[in-house]
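During the first year of the project, the team set up a workflow for recording each protein of interest as an amino acid sequence followed immediately by a discrete structure-token representation. This format lets reviewers and collaborators read both layers of information side by side without switching files. As required by the reporting guidelines, we include two representative entries from the current panel. The first entry is reproduced here exactly as it appears in our internal archive.
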Amino acid sequence: MTVAAVDKILLIFFHWLQGYFTLAGRAFARIFRRPFYYRECAIQFDKLGFSSLFICTLTGLFSGMVMALQSLIQLKPFAATSYVGGMVAVTMIKELGPVLAALMVAGRVGSAITAELGTMVVTEQVDAMRVEGTDIIKRLVVPRLIAMVMALPLLTIVTDLVSVFGGYVMASGYNINPVMYISGLPQFMLFQDLIEGVVKPSVFGVIIAITACYVGLNTKGGAAGVGAAAKQAVVLSSVLILVCDFFMAKIFLVFRG
């Protein structure tokens, strides 16, 4: 690879990075400015939140069952199967719950946001709104950002609760009663773990919304470009979620001491 090619790649990367954080900064700056599109926020919350409830519930149920099954297999030789509830809870609430919920939502909702905005761009609806004097970021980005930041933590909580229930369903087959299962939770869980389990999906919600909106608003190439943009948004959101999860885990570990 020549120096010119490397230079071109770096220029494209930093141009994308600048545009990404510029959009994020402008979106956050406009959250508390008039006009407030309450109706649009409610519509987006319904589209992004409630429509993803089933897939998050299904993901949480089977993830909890798999976690419990694997934990029971490992704990049975040591006669420590009573700890399975705590192991499932701490693993799902701290790590797997927020990440799995975010990845499911990124695949389902992130692609939909990108396709919707991308279609508006290629059909020149966004240009028409600009001509009318409409603030595109305030009208299109901010409602989706607010809805996503509100919806994803709630979806994660549902995923966590269903996963703990799924873990009990699997554990009940190993003669573990509800009292024994629940008593293992406080032995593994701390209050900071609950805070971590809510903060992470809030950050992931920002990543999904900003990534999907940025890619969607920069779509080019007609119908084929919309499809490519939707795929790009899902891949990029998923990678950013996993990278961000690592650094946030390190930060929380420092605060834990």
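The second entry, processed by the same pipeline in the following quarter, appears below.
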Amino acid sequence: MLINILQFLSGILIVFVVIAVHELGHLIVGLVQGFRFELFVVGPLGVKREKEAIKVYLNKEWMYYGGVASTLPIDNDPENWRKFANLLIAGPIASILLAIILGILYYAFDFEFSNVLRVGALASIGIFLATTIPNKTGIFFTDRKRYQRLTSDGPEKIVELAVLRVTGVYGRDRSYINVDPKDIELMIGDEDYKYMGLFTMLYYQREKFGKYNGETKALFDEQSAKMPKSMVKSLTAELDKIEN
């Protein structure tokens, strides 16, 4: 009975390890290329930047339980797009490498908890497929799809570069006030980034002019009705902070 319980708990643990390795692939490549650490969450464990301090905390956001890692460019290096493309593909590469390692260990060694290695290998393959086969996971692009958009020569790349510039300015200034409004407009004009573009525009307007544009706010509220409640709650809370 005790062995079964331990095997079950080990199975849960290995799944979180698999998620962590995928996100660390993104995180480490971002840091190595000079991006600044912002957030790392796996299950209940969270690590985030608050101003200039790094804080460990208990994650209560269920939307982050599947893992998230964030590093942001801190300058307008023209090579940022290439660096970000490397960061995007690093997660799936880390997952498939881990699957191979765990698979080799599973077949090479026979011990009480060897099945945990098989669970880990299968879970890692699952994450690799989930981040490379579909175009989206929920409302977000998968790693593969965003990599393709960023490295293409079409209008999708123009939007992705605008998103990268916006996040780069925010990463440097911790503010949207110096963002080029044309980049925000490019986000709003893209159906997939429209909601985040509207949020960014509201934030920019509040910082720049001290108030929102009524039309922008109305569009944001309209789009909010179509978005996941947890995401709306999080972004609304960010807007509330600059109101006070």
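For the second entry, the following points were noted during internal review. The two ends are 55 Å apart (CA to CA). The longest helix spans residues 2-32. Both points are flagged for discussion at the upcoming steering committee meeting.
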